[in-house]
């Protein structure tokens, strides 16, 4: 790899980053973007305080409680819980006396698994011996026994965090939830149960006997609910700045020289006020408020830094933004062969004529043949080749079968087209080297 | 630290290679939990990621979800590949929890907690159908397994939109593989150049070849196969000394029928292709068999007996005509076909021809009635005649509908119009005359 670009960059400004520094910066910033724990929780102070006081009371006073944390995906529910635990770890004396048990609905798919998970996280596996692998009822009673032992002052408080809480509701008889809530409600042992879910109707999933034991305390997390577009945009840019800037107190940032940090932060500051960068962010924000998408975006931007490219520029933002905003559905159509594209156009016309009624292969093939008869150059429309093209479209899920019954012959199975007319036409006008007849056909109203 | 991989190793994929390397190529940096590679079939997705991972020398495993069609096989395959086939015996891993525990054990043993581990799942659209919890769990492996630098790479030719279940999923880092352009395809195909021919001669051939094939197929694997297959044919006259190597127009004349024939056999990969081209070689292009299309050959390959031919034609007529029309079509003395004024023609919806709607079912009696009205001589209804129906069902030219032994059997015709037209031609029977919807 050539070493010249570095020198070139150096000669432009007196204060530039060295390759080693860029590497370190990239590492730190990637860390900030990807690892939620490495940056503080932002926004929603009320909800944060709620969860904090819930846990704190459970730990310090041994108070039992149960609650649900509800919010849309990517709203920062897990981040909130993580930072609450982090804070308690730092300033709560009784943290060492309490145990945090984390269960995830994706992993602990039934109560037996959940029980195993609880036992291992409470480090009761050894105490239980082979009982862990005994019958479900035995385990449960043993576990409860362990939890019940001792009175309030002497027993450890346990905090249960149930990620994807809605999936636990599908366990048979909701035994786990019933027992956990029961222990919490009857204050047999100091436990606190926090369910995290993105389903607002989650309480409808609870059985009546479970519901009656649940404290019915719900903490809703809607960080973007109240903000206007301008405010949201402002928060977005601030978030961007926070994620990209380097704070010297951060662990690995201490290896970075002060001047490099300062230089980098100044660069980020400039970029975040740059109008073309903010336009990119605005465009994305109008499409999705999902924070994870922003993080993915910034990750790709930062990843562009390397030895030959020592500083971020606005073109990095613009190019990644182009990659993000590209309509991949259209791009996929552009990658089809001409024959397959013709089939799609035939389907599109079929849809227009028959008002989006489902179609089968024979209908589309008849339409394709009709087009071929009118076109001057003969296309290759051998039936078998067209069948293959049709099946290819099916495997790409460009068309979706109406029913999945295997009774019907392949040629007569009904399908829906998964594209709108405009997308197909856009792809047709972008397609390189398409015969004019085909594009005329695509843009004609009559068939 | 230099780039450990030369982007030129993977043709026409510079952007993608660069991006993957920038995400996975720095062992001290954080790794995204999930990367999604999508693009058309054989656009180099798996090849690129494998090349990059090999060059980066990180721990990686590859599972094809066609082979690992149940979660257990996916999990076990990942674990055995990670451990390097040491502990395949006694390994049993049925669910996500077991998998994560075992993964942690493996990581403890091999000291993988701080190392980059990449799990590539090819054909990942199949994961959606396995277990609703599987895909979300695999995408969050980093969070669930506490291995800090594990990354799941999903490879698929279905777009990410189609993966998202109702519950939603965290968006992965998307990398799209643009379909190869025509010049890319030429560049890639020219890698297969045989040693004993000059490069520009092969390039000439490829240009001819691509011009014919690209309309119907952009699948690079298939194109490579077909290019190699046809190049042998292209060179035959040169080897025999009939055509000079520089005479491209003569060579084109020689190859173009081969290419056309080969195009019909695209994706089929059966030996019939060879037979077909050998027939073209024997310089009888207007031989009776060669002028027929592939579907005609299919129809004639059954060599049906005389009555069976009439039976299948009758079945077709029964399937694609409404019973209401039978009388008009088949009763001989209906000379009095009244020209009824078509009333109420302002049907806004165009009528859909029954030929494209698929076959109706009919019962045995109707089949026999149509059979007797279209055949000239009247064979006695006998066991021999009825077994013909059974053998048609066995050949899957007829389909039996329902399997209630008490009811009269019902059938559907399972072959298309072109098949029937070819069969009818051998009987010199004009089948289209009897089809109401034939235009």
What would your notes on this structure say?
The complex is a heterodimer of chains A (447) and B (439). Chain A is α/β, with parallel strands linked by helices. Helix content of chain A is 55%, strand content 8%. Chain A is built from 22 helices and seven strands. In chain A, helix 2 packs antiparallel against helix 15, helix 18 crosses helix 19 and helix 21 packs antiparallel against helix 22. The longest helix of chain A has 16 residues. The N terminus of chain A is likely disordered. Chain B is 46% helix and 9% strand. A five-stranded parallel beta sheet of chain B has the order 2-3-4-1-5, with helices on both faces. Chain B has a three-stranded antiparallel beta sheet with strand order 6-8-7. Chain B contains 19 helices and eight strands. In chain B, a hairpin with an 8-residue loop joins strand 7 and strand 8. Chain B is α/β, with parallel strands linked by helices. Classes of the chains: A alpha/beta (447), B alpha/beta (439). Chains A and B meet through helix 2, helix 5, helix 15, helix 17 and helix 18 of A and helix 1, helix 4, strand 5, helix 11 and helix 16 of B.
Descriptive tags:
heterodimer, A: 447 residues, alpha/beta, five-stranded parallel beta sheet, 22 helices, 7 strands, 55% helix, disordered N terminus, B: 439 residues, three-stranded antiparallel beta sheet, 19 helices
Q: Order of strands side by side in the largest beta sheet of chain B?
A: 2-3-4-1-5
Helix share, percent of chain A:
55-70%
Q: What composes the largest sheet of chain B?
A: 5 strands, parallel
Radius of gyration of chain B: 31 Å
Gist of the model:
The complex is a heterodimer of chains A (447) and B (439). With 447 residues, chain A is an alpha/beta fold.
Topology of this protein?
The complex is a heterodimer of chains A (447) and B (439).
Chain A: H1 4-12, H2 19-34, H3 45-60, E1 65-70, H4 77-91, E2 99-104, H5 111-121, H6 125-128, H7 136-148, E3 158-163, H8 165-168, H9 175-186, E4 191-197, H10 202-205, H11 208-211, E5 218-220, H12 229-244, H13 258-273, H14 275-287, H15 291-303, H16 314-325, H17 328-334, H18 338-353, H19 361-374, H20 383-395, E6 399-401, E7 415-417, H21 421-430, H22 436-443
Parallel strand pairs in A: 1-4, 1-5, 2-3, 3-4
Antiparallel strand pairs in A: 6-7
Chain B: H1 14-24, E1 34-39, H2 45-56, E2 59-64, H3 71-83, H4 96-110, E3 117-122, H5 127-130, H6 134-139, H7 141-145, E4 150-156, E5 173-177, H8 182-189, H9 199-213, H10 220-239, H11 248-264, H12 272-281, H13 294-300, H14 306-320, H15 326-330, H16 354-357, E6 362-363, H17 364-374, H18 383-394, E7 398-401, E8 410-413, H19 417-426
Parallel strand pairs in B: 1-4, 1-5, 2-3, 3-4
Antiparallel strand pairs in B: 6-8, 7-8
Helix pairs in contact in B: 1-2, 3-4, 8-9, 9-10, 9-11, 10-11, 11-12, 13-19, 14-17, 14-18, 14-19
């Amino acid at each position: 790899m050539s070493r010249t670009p570095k020198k070139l960059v150096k000669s432009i400004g007196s204060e530039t980053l060295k390759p080693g520094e860029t590497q370190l910066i990239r590492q730190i910033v990637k860390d900030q973007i990807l690892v939620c724990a490495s940056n503080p929780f932002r926004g929603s102070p009320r909800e944060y305080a709620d969860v904090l006081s819930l846990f704190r009371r459970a730990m310090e006073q041994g108070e039992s409680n149960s609650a649900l944390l509800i919010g849309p995906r990517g709203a920062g529910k897990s981040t909130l819980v993580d930072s609450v635990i982090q804070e308690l770890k730092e300033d709560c004396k009784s943290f060492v006396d309490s145990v945090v048990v984390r269960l995830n609905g994706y992993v602990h798919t039934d109560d037996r698994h959940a029980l195993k998970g609880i036992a291992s996280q409470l480090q009761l596996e050894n105490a239980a011996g082979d009982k862990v692998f005994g019958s479900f009822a035995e385990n449960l009673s043993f576990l409860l026994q362990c939890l019940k032992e001792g009175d309030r002052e002497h027993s450890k408080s346990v905090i249960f965090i149930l990620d994807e809480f809605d999936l636990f509701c599908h366990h048979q008889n909701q035994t786990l939830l019933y027992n956990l809530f029961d222990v919490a409600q009857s204050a047999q042992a100091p436990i606190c149960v926090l369910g995290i879910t993105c389903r607002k109707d989650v309480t409808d999933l609870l059985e009546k006997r479970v519901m009656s034991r649940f404290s019915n305390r719900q903490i809703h997390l809607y960080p973007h609910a109240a903000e206007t577009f301008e405010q949201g945009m402002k928060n977005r840019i601030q978030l961007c700045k926070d994620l990209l800037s380097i704070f010297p107190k951060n662990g690995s940032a201490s290896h970075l020289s002060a001047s490099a940090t300062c230089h980098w932060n100044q660069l980020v500051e400039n970029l975040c006020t740059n109008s073309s960068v903010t336009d990119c962010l605005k465009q994305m924000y109008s499409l999705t408020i999902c924070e994870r998408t922003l993080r993915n975006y910034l990750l790709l931007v930062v990843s562009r830094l390397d030895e030959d490219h020592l500083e971020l520029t606005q073109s990095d933002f613009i190019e990644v933004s182009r990659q993000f905003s590209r309509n991949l559905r259209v791009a996929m159509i552009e990658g089809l062969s001409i024959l397959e594209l013709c089939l799609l156009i035939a389907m599109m016309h079929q849809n227009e004529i028959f008002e989006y009624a489902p179609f089968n292969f024979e209908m589309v093939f008849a339409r394709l043949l009709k087009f071929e008869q009118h076109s001057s150059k003969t296309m290759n429309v051998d039936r078998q080749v067209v069948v293959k093209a049709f099946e290819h479209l099916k495997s790409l899920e460009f068309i979706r079968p109406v029913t999945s019954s295997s009774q019907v012959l392949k040629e007569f199975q009904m399908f829906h087209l998964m594209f709108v007319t405009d997308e197909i036409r856009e792809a047709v006008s972008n397609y390189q080297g398409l015969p004019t007849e085909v594009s005329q056909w695509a843009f004609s109203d009559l068939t | 630290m230099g780039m450990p991989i030369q982007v030129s190793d993977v043709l026409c994929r510079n952007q993608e290679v660069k991006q993957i390397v920038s995400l996975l190529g720095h062992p001290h940096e954080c790794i995204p939990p999930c990367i999604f590679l999508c693009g058309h079939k054989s656009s180099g997705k798996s090849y690129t990621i494998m090349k990059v991972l090999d060059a980066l020398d990180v721990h990686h495993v590859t599972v094809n979800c066609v082979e690992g069609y149940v979660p257990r096989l996916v999990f076990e395959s990942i674990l055995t590949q990670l451990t390097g086939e040491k502990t395949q015996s006694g390994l049993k891993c049925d669910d996500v929890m077991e998998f994560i525990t075992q993964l942690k054990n493996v990581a403890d043993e091999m000291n993988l907690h701080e190392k980059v581990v990449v799990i590539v799942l090819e054909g990942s659209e199949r994961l959606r159908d396995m277990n609703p919890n599987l895909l979300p769990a695999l995408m969050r492996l980093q969070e669930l397994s506490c291995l800090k630098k594990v990354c799941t790479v999903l490879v698929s030719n279905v777009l990410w939109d189609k993966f998202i279940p109702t519950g939603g999923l965290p968006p992965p880092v998307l990398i799209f593989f643009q379909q190869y352009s025509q010049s890319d395809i030429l560049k890639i195909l020219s890698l297969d150049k045989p040693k004993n021919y000059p490069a520009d001669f092969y390039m000439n051939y490829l240009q001819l070849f691509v011009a014919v094939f690209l309309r119907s197929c952009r699948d690079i694997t298939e194109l490579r196969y077909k290019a190699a297959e046809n190049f042998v044919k292209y060179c035959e006259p040169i080897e025999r000394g009939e055509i000079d190597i520089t005479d491209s127009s003569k060579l084109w004349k020689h190859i173009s029928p081969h290419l056309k024939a080969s195009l019909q056999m695209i994706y089929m990969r059966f030996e019939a292709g060879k037979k077909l081209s050998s027939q073209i070689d024997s310089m009888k292009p207007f031989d009776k068999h060669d002028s027929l299309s592939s579907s005609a050959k299919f129809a004639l390959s059954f060599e049906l007996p005389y009555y069976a031919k009439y039976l299948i034609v009758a079945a077709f007529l029964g399937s694609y005509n409404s019973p209401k029309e039978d009388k008009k079509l088949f009763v001989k003395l209906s000379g009095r076909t009244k020209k009824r004024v078509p009333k109420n023609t302002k049907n806004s919806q165009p009528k859909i021809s029954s030929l494209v709607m698929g076959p109706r079912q009919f019962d045995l009696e109707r089949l026999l009635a149509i059979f007797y009205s279209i055949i000239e001589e009247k064979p006695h209804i006998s066991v021999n005649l009825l077994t013909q129906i059974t053998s048609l069902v066995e050949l899957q030219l007829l389909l039996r509908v329902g399997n209630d032994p008490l009811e009269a059997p019902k059938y559907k015709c399972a072959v298309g119009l072109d098949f029937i037209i070819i069969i009818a031609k051998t009987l010199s029977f004009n089948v289209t005359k009897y089809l109401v919807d034939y235009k």
